[in-house]
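Shipment paperwork, digital attachment
Item: protein structure file
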Amino acid sequence: MQYIQVQITFPTLESAEEAAEKIVDRRLAACAQIAGIVRSIYTWKGKREKCNEILLLAKTRAELFGQLVEAVRDGHPYECPQIVAVPLIAGNEDYLAWLDEQTAD
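Attachment content:
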């Protein structure tokens, strides 16, 4: 089994909480943590932007990534939201078993 941590940014705490509840309720993630404010600097449509964003971290199985992206994009306030995944190369066996259980069909 392959596990991932999905990193998603939102403009508000409320939009991050809404997405976190949606993906956990749909069993697309075992856990969604709202890490708090991050300062983002990026170029969008030719203009440098700076803004505060809320970072959401979700733990799930790699095979659920596509469904998770669809669920998050539906209703996300950004035109092009950051939804990226990084592999979890190791983890506490009990935690990974719980992750499997929480994301089971």
